[in-house]
Amino acid sequence: MSTRRSVLKSLAAGTGVFSLSEVFAANEKALGAKLNGKINHSVCKWCYGKIPLDTFAKECKEMGITSIELLGPEDWPTLKKYGLTCALPNGAGMGIEKGFNDLALHDELVKSYEDLFPKLKEAGYTTVICFSGNRRGMSDIDGMRNCAIGLRRLMPSAEKYGITMIMELLNSKVNHKDYMCDHTAWGAGLCEMVGSEHFKLLYDIYHMSIMEGDVIATIKKYHKYIGHYHTGGVPGRNEIDEGQELYYPAIMKAIVETGFKGYVAQEFIPKREPLASLKQCVQICDIA
């Protein structure tokens, strides 16, 4: 039985249209070429933990990547050394499982973020990651209200320092059992409840493909609430090439068509040589 991908490949052979594998091969040859500029490329350092940050920053700079993210204040000087930014810093909060849906944690969370905001401002960064926390039996509406209460406390400081708090959408089906902010509609509802442009969502394509599917339609519907994007191959969170089910060039095109001017960060766990995989996946997302 023919698969959709085999049909596309046979059509490509007969009509002169390039197959995905041919496109990827061409991208490999063009790895040293200048990027097209429609996507601002970032990468999450945790996926490359064995590579020293100094070495990694140098390699990213040569690839045309302009940001390395999910790093705290102790690592920012290394990024500055190579003329890189941190499109989504961390350094505050209590981790993924303990977040703003727990009223008992609000005082500690507010202090943590208020202490970080001036450091972000001084470094020239304008975003920071945050999390809802796990449900622990809480209803979605109660969790949303609790999150909004805590986040509203931070909005005056966020606005003062020019910081946008970015809450990550994560899947609770495979990787983060019981996590509350696990559907885009819930996150959008929270954005409405908070009522500030200084609170947005991190739409993780890998996570939301697992939870919802319908990635492009969801991005088009909710793009005004999205402040950042992450990639990852489905299933497995590995390379975003032909070994997984998502077609990233079309997803990137949809993101660009929404008018998005922020960053798209590679967040996949490489199965092959890490830097070669990173180069290839940046090229896959670098639409013309």
UniProtKB/TrEMBL annotation:
Keyword flag Isomerase: yes
Signal peptide (UniProt feature, chain positions): none
GO molecular function: isomerase activity
Swiss-Prot/TrEMBL keywords: Isomerase
A Pfam family assignment: AP_endonuc_2
Domain Xylose isomerase-like TIM barrel as annotated: residue spans: 78-269
Record has Isomerase as a keyword: yes
Protein's name according to its UniProt entry: TIM barrel protein
Organism: Dyadobacter fanqingshengii
Lineage, highest ranks first: Bacteria, Pseudomonadati, Bacteroidota, Cytophagia, Cytophagales
